[in-house]
């Protein structure tokens, strides 16, 4: 599995070069972005791809010194489960 950066998204490509998942985001000013969608091909679910996509988005935020608003229900759940993501979550108290 390979994860690639696209325009306002990060996507997963399997060994055959087929896109099997993506996480999309929208800029919310210069210092944050909103995760608005995480999706994985039905045949590839249950393999941790969506979690990896969120992890890549968190890495992107850290590298760019940005915060994330996780509006997508899956991303929001990942942020609630993984305390190490909370440092990049916008409006976290």
TrEMBL record:
<dbReference type="InterPro" id="IPR045057">
    <property type="entry name" value="Gcn5-rel_NAT"/>
</dbReference>
<dbReference type="InterPro" id="IPR016181">
    <property type="entry name" value="Acyl_CoA_acyltransferase"/>
</dbReference>
<feature type="domain" description="N-acetyltransferase">
    <location>
        <begin position="1"/>
        <end position="93"/>
    </location>
</feature>
<keyword id="KW-0808">Transferase</keyword>
<dbReference type="Pfam" id="PF14542">
    <property type="entry name" value="Acetyltransf_CG"/>
</dbReference>
<dbReference type="InterPro" id="IPR000182">
    <property type="entry name" value="GNAT_dom"/>
</dbReference>
<dbReference type="GO" id="GO:0016747">
    <property type="term" value="F:acyltransferase activity, transferring groups other than amino-acyl groups"/>
</dbReference>
<feature type="domain" description="N-acetyltransferase">
    <location>
        <begin position="3"/>
        <end position="90"/>
    </location>
</feature>
<protein>
    <submittedName>
        <fullName>N-acetyltransferase</fullName>
    </submittedName>
</protein>
<dbReference type="InterPro" id="IPR031165">
    <property type="entry name" value="GNAT_YJDJ"/>
</dbReference>
